[in-house]
Design a protein that fits this description.
single chain; mainly alpha; rod-shaped
Length: 220
């Protein structure tokens, strides 16, 4: 039996709970795709390379050029944070640091938005599968105790099918969603780590530039 045929049979014999489990799959996949698009294609940049370009321009005192670089990535998170410091170049260290920290606080919720829904949907899918299993077992016990002898085997098989198919389908939806959540959460944390690292470097760089100190050495 191929997978498509098995899915068709599951929907035919799995009972009512196949519908809400399918809805869980649809919502979970939609959230995962939206988060993948945002975290990998919009919010993220090559942080090391981008920071190196911005730092080179800042050291050359080409603040306008550095701002143009940041404006060229309007959806990415790190450029937004760096821009918050660049627009206040020459200001006191406290004001500069506060501006960059405020920008960090603004982008952090955007990176983690909707991610907690994925494990919740996975858990709901598993529990709906368990409900279907209990429903099928109840139907099986009822068949053993209440049906006529000629109909008992058919009713028993139907109840067992409901129990097994809903369990299988619930896990089939839940496991990929949990894996996707782990991958997307790791990506969000990576972007946040880059922001924290390079925001601190930008704070130190602009502070040194204002004071006329030797600028901090560029790091990888």
């Amino acid at each position: 039996m191929d997978f498509v045929t098995m899915l068709r049979e599951m929907f035919e014999k799995g009972g009512f709970f196949m519908i809400p489990i399918t809805l869980c799959a649809v919502f979970g996949i939609a959230i995962a795709l939206e988060r993948f698009f945002y975290l990998y294609l919009r919010a993220g940049v090559d942080a090391g390379s981008f920071m190196a370009k911005v730092q080179r321009m800042v050291l050359e005192r080409n603040i306008e050029g550095a701002l143009r670089l940041c404006n060229g990535e309007p959806s990415a998170s790190l450029p937004k944070v760096l821009k918050a410091g660049l627009v206040r170049v020459g200001r006191p260290d406290g004001e500069l640091k506060a501006s960059i920290e405020e920008a960090c606080l603004e982008v952090q919720p955007l990176l983690s938005r909707r991610l907690p829904y994925l494990p919740m949907i996975a858990n709901v899918s598993t529990l709906l599968g368990l409900l279907g299993t209990i429903q099928g077992l109840i139907a099986s016990f009822h068949a053993v105790s209440g049906e006529e002898a000629g109909e008992r085997s058919t009713a028993l098989a139907s109840g067992i099918a409901v129990a097994m198919y809903t369990t299988f389908y619930g896990l089939l939806v839940a496991i990929p969603l949990l894996v996707l959540h782990s991958l997307l959460a790791a990506r969000a944390n990576q972007v946040l780590d880059d922001i924290d690292h390079y925001a601190m470097r930008m704070t130190n760089l602009l502070g040194s530039l204002r004071r006329g100190d030797a600028p901090p050495q560029e790091q990888g």
